[in-house]
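I'm curious: can you give me some protein's one-letter sequence along with its backbone structure tokens because I've never seen that pairing?
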Amino acid sequence: MKIASIDLGERPVLLAPMEDVTDPAFRLMCKEFGADMVYTEFVSADALIRAVSKTEQKLAISQEERPVAIQIYGRDVDTMVEAAKIVEQAHPDVIDLNFGCPVKRVAGKGAGAGMLQNIPLMLQITRSVVQSVHIPVTVKTRLGWDDGHKIIVDLAEQLQDCGIQALTIHGRTRAQMYTGEADWTLIGEVKRNPRMHIPVIGNGDVTTPQRARECFERYGVDAIMIGRASFGRPWIFREVKHYLETGETLQDLTPAWKLDVLRRQVIDSVRLLDERRGILHVRRHLAASPLFKGIPNFRDTRIAMLRAETQEELFRIFREIEPLLGI
């Protein structure tokens, strides 16, 4: 599969853009474990053109994580165009436009998935950004605003006509947020549309290697994108890639190896930010890790993880967990 001239190989698996999740350290780790392309946290166009320091820091990318996309969101043409030009100077491989974020502070103000209620403006923004930069522009969106307005099949063609180089579709409406199950049937319909010639990337509830293969084979997508299933499980990319290549479940990732990966994730996060912010950032990953699923009476330990404030505190909890994991 190619996005413009960027060759991602056969059946690529991508790391989704996620706020407060896909920082440089996490992106590099997922890349190491097999992610074929990674995305930054989403970047506010408004904050970027106001030169907000915290937002500008999100543009930091490294050679080791390429190909990498920087995703931006906003609600008016001029702001998005100016932000795209600023992003282009950071030299990502792709600029991705976020028309899918469902959270109220974004969609409620007309940005992200809020654009699904103003398709003419969405298309104007897309067309203007494509024309203003010299690197590939892609879009990530949802099926529609709600069950009564699942417009993605027609919208996909319209976005393609604006000049985008790939389209990612999350298989939920904005009204669903992250509840219920992702519906891939319309994603498959977009892919089967003979008028579509750009890559179609499917996103939503890809949580196992088996489901990843099913999405490729049943719906015909060009790539899949993994988001929340990577929380506390960056090795999911290794599991998925192995299964896609061999048809067999990867057996050699032991609990001790996985716990060491989580330790490294803590260290990397602290190194990137500082101890206080790094721990705040990483502890939600740890508490969600499937590594700890099935440990008896784990609730109190999970709460302790979410309250931990230092690296040593977290590592002490890890040491207490080791016997429960058979380490």
Remarks:
- The chain has a mean pLDDT of 95.
